[in-house]
Write a structure and sequence with these properties.
179 residues, four-stranded antiparallel beta sheet, Immunoglobulin-like, 20% helix
Length: 179
């Protein structure tokens, strides 16, 4: 039988690492879309419309496009890293070497850590009923895109008026009371 020396400090460190890994893996962030970044959205419904709110920090309204087809909304766009959108467009078009530092605040910066997502994005949202695209409205303020999407007339609930049948109308005509 061989004796093994017990190292409580080493054992505690490996247990701590295991718990940390388990904790980190249990809180999974949403994955970015295959085209770039993840766009978080809230979608609500009223009697007349759907309301969709999407956070797009750093995206300019002119770099975002919204299309509506029946009951599907597609939001596409691009978030450029740094401040110079034109330089980014040139870099993506191959007119500038990718290894050059990116402009930021009038200075060239070589980033050491990049966690803020950037690039092309697409978010598709499907609602239960068709949308009246001609009446839809979009506002963009401080990185929050808000869509007001009126339901199409054929999708709205309609109230029917009940008319008495022929037999009941005959009773009413003879002075009878409807039931």
């Amino acid at each position: 039988m061989s004796l093994t020396r017990w190292e409580p400090f080493t054992e505690m460190m490996s247990l701590r690492d295991a718990v940390n890994r388990l904790f980190e893996e249990s809180f999974v962030r949403p994955l970015p879309t295959p085209t770039g970044m993840f766009v978080p959205c809230d979608v609500g419904e009223t009697e007349d419309e759907f309301i969709c709110r999407c956070t797009l920090p750093g995206v300019r309204p002119e770099d975002c496009d919204i299309s509506i087809q029946q009951n599907t909304i597609r939001i596409t766009g691009e978030l450029f890293p740094g401040e110079s959108h034109e330089m980014q467009r040139q870099a993506q078009a191959g007119q500038q070497q990718a290894q050059q530092p990116m402009p930021y605040g009038g200075k060239k910066v070589t980033w050491l850590l990049r966690e803020i997502p950037h690039g092309r994005f697409t978010r598709t949202i499907t609602v239960p009923t068709p949308i009246n695209a001609d009446q839809a409205k979009a506002t963009f303020d401080n990185g929050l895109l808000v869509l007001h999407l009126p339901k199409a007339e054929e999708a709205k609930a309609k109230r029917l008026t009940i008319t008495p049948g022929a037999q009941q109308q005959a009773q009413i005509g003879k002075g009878g009371q409807p039931r």
